[in-house]
Specification:
Structural class: alpha+beta
Low-confidence stretches: none
Oligomer: single chain
Largest sheet: 4 strands, antiparallel
Shape: elongated
Number of helices: 1
Number of strands: 8
Strand content: 25-35%
Mean pLDDT: 89
Distance between the termini: 75 Å
Strand order of the largest sheet: 3-2-1-5
Length: 153
């Protein structure tokens, strides 16, 4: 009769755990790079979302037959979002990730366009990520045309 029990030896288990640990150590620097890329993509997405909403405010003001006034407002207290108003009612709320902060020049806290598509004010917005010090996106609204440009710094 064979009394040999099935299973793994302690040495085999230790070797397997050691190999997995070595692979994890090799992947760790790569995971930091991936995490930085992820944060950068979050920031880029937020910047392009804000740019698209600014363009939408302009287009709706120009082409809506009801002649509603659309206004994009950034609250001074809340650095993680903005609202779009149609007349005096909130039409759209946007919340950014808690790690992304939105700041703007004083005159840009309330942005609206006239019926010709010209902005009432011109200036810029800045988006920064807490995990990426020194990196930010700038959005600029041009006078007269209202063109929105996005710059990565």
């Amino acid at each position: 009769m064979n009394n040999k029990a099935g299973g793994y030896l302690l040495l085999e288990l230790l070797l397997t755990i050691g190999c997995l640990g070595a692979f994890a150590a090799m992947l760790y620097p790569g995971s930091q790079l991936l995490q930085r890329q992820y944060y950068k993509q979050q920031l880029r997405y937020a910047a392009y979302l804000l740019a698209a909403d600014i363009r939408q405010v302009q287009q709706r003001t120009i082409f809506q037959p009801e002649n509603y006034t659309y206004t994009l407002k950034v609250s001074g207290n809340d650095k993680h979002g903005y609202k779009i108003y149609r007349e005096q009612k909130v039409w759209k709320r946007v919340r950014l990730e808690q790690t992304i902060s939105l700041t703007c020049e004083a005159q840009m806290k309330s942005l609206s366009y006239d019926e010709n598509g010209s902005p009432g004010v011109s200036g810029g917005y800045s988006l920064e990520h807490q995990q990426l010090p020194g990196m930010y996106f700038l959005l600029s609204v041009q006078p007269v045309t209202g063109r929105v440009t996005v710059y990565e710094k």
